[in-house]
Amino acid sequence: QREDAEVASCKPAFEWAPGFLDEESGLAVHPKQRTMETRPRMLFLSLALFMSGCVSARGSVEAFPVRRLDKGSQSGVVESCQLVVNDRAAWERLWTEHQSHGQSQRPAPEIDFAREMVVFVAMGQQFSGGFAIEIEKIEAARSRLRIAFRRKAPPSGVMVTQALSAPFEIVAVPKSNLPTEFVEIKDAARE
Prior knowledge:
Shape: flat
Structural class: alpha+beta
Strand content: 25-35%
Helix content: 10-25%
Number of strands: 8
């Protein structure tokens, strides 16, 4: 009876994990008993895992914080366009054109162009209300600054304002020297 009690409370000094089987014999092998043949394989696997981590770090995506400056349905910019503005003079010209739609003139939002840049998207002139354009996300991916935006149209049969509109969105993001790429996200129904 005493021997049974000791056996029941006895725990093995080492628990066998699934990676410690000898492929040839199918027997469990303690890590210290591995042959020299298994060490190169483990070194190769470790190196492969390390390298895959390095590759995924280079291919990573970094989201940019966005500060909204203005968004609406009435811009003086009546052509569809997507712009990145990197200096004060270009920003003031764009803001003046944007404000030329008979709106009350507001001063351009302050931008520190040493730290930020402006992203402007405009849908162009539409023949009714209900349209919109918005910046979905801005991210650094594959050595490019990807600016994803979406155009929205009113659903068919919905009542909308019967007036010209020119939807837009303007945001500020941290300054980047990466080449920019505007990517339009299209709804499956619109394609």
